[in-house]
Amino acid sequence: xxxxxxxPVLDDAELRVLGSLMEKSRTTPDYYPMTINSLTAACNQxxxxxxxxxxxxxxxxxxINTLKRRGLVSTATGGTDRAxxxxxxxxxxxxxxxxxxxxxxxxxxxxxxxxxELNTNSGRLYEFESIEDVQELLEKLxxxxxxxxxxxxxxxxxxxxxYIHLLGGTTDWTEEDSAAPDTAKxxxxxxxxxxxxxxxDLAELKEAFDKLMKELT
Length: 217
Prior knowledge:
By secondary structure, the protein is mainly alpha-helical. It has 8 helices and 4 strands.
């Protein structure tokens, strides 16, 4: 990462909106770009998010407007749907490839994670060959003139180090902010995946219903 591009400092709402757009561009491409309604639902998901938030549409719109001014989000045009939709431009603004976007996205949405956690959680965003591939990319993203992430100090008794993104500035991440213990994450992984799918299905159904209602009126 030897880019001269300055990394922006985004607030919590902007980080969540950007991360959600990154995620849905990969996990639900048929419903991407996204409307304000579907993007708000994505921001407020109860799974795959740390912390869980409850944004209203006004908060999301304000975040989108700021991200648009920074060039990180743009309005999608074309098609027969009259609803305004939005997409992220992160890989246009910065010289990053899909595998790197996936890792940054996970850190934006889930908070600090170890290489092992990133490898486990990345399945729907990017299929890494091995944890070594993840580690190599993390080291690349943490170096250069514009580092996107940094390595956190190892916690007592922790085997793997954690990484955090730098799009919110050089924030100090406390132990209280960290996600649930690894054992809890593993045991809840299957349930989380099922709930995420249900949330995605519900958002898709709602958007299809809204579109149908517009066509009938």
